[in-house]
Amino acid sequence: MTLSWTQIARMGLVQMALGAIVVLTTSTLNRLMVVEFALPAVLPGMLVGLHYGIQLSRPRWGFTSDTGGNRTTWIISGMIILALGGFLAAFAVTLFAASFWAALALSVLAYGLIGIGVGASGTSLLALLATATAPQRRAAAATITWLMMIFGIAMTAGVAGSFLDPYSPARLLTVVAVVCVGATLLTIIAVTGIEARVTTTQEPDHTPFIQGLREVWSERKTRNFTLFVFLSMNAYFMQELILEPYAGLVWGFTPGQSTSLSGAQNGGVFIGMLTVGIAATGFKIGALRMWVIMGCIGSALSLLAIASAVLSLTPLVVALGFFNGMFAVAAIGSMMALAAEGRGRREGTRMGLWGAAQAIAAGFGGLTGAAAVDIMRGFQPDATAFGTVFAAEAALFIAAAVMALQIMENTPQQTAGMVPGE
Fold this sequence. Notes:
By secondary structure, the protein is an all-alpha fold. The protein is built from 16 helices and no strands. The protein has a single domain (5-195, 209-415), classed as Up-down Bundle (Growth Hormone, Chain: A), CATH 1.20.1250. It starts with a helix and ends in a 15-residue tail after the last helix.
């Protein structure tokens, strides 16, 4: 028995809960450290880099799922750990005004927990999707769950932003606590019972982890796609830690306004993903490679416009989100299709490998962007410093488009299964 559309949607609720907690730690708390507490942008960059670094364990989580691990337990346990880390991260921010070192120590612990939680819950969820979803539904399942995650990010950023003004530590902790508790309860309700109802044809595999990872890495398509994920995700995440500080320092946005800006951006991501799903499947327009390339080029142009600091910021950020979503959903469709290719019983390991590549790129890209802004603000105006990093990110997107042109196939079959349809 394989996952039904209803069960796939329920698992999407878990992705939505993951996104709801993570967006507060990577956007709102980051902005508060840089703007309200005047800390260097590299500090939250290093903290976010820590949580991404810990996600290097993703291949291990995926391999454990491949060899018969209890995925439901890890999905729920990971979410609880993530929620605890998210609340502790918010509490640590409120401590910076009183004790820098105590706040920093607690932040390190909190972001470590966030990394463990996301790695355990997210990878186990994707592994269950990859192994228990019918082959013709895999790409659609990935698209549905990713759309729901983006919806959770956009909704949380928008709603939380409206409740954060006027900012106070007590208000921040209340908002974060509500989000964390709600996400945990939603996960427990959504995922309970699904794995027990799903049976797979695979027997437990006792291959050692290192051997299994080597087998997957030896596959040329898997290896090339891993490199593409690393390059493109560097471009995707380089602005993550500096966009809200840019809005506050250059455009004068309040904490609530900049958090809402993040919600608007992710709203654009949602629309971009939905547009590709409808166009590729409903109207059979283009293969996934075309949509990846268009998304990369559109993202580059949007970043160059944001770097100019001339036009209104919010519409440009929405445009950036739209093209980011276009690129992301096409890449995810390719990822789910490739996860089922090659050596059998390695879907979770491949998803874990690509998740690790994404995590490394996200941490490296975010930290590099934040550090570059810090350095350039020492001898350039804020607008110029931020604009230079946005321009560099645009160049990376162009490079990713060129790589996609070379390694991705351009066949009509690649668009199959992007959105559900019987």
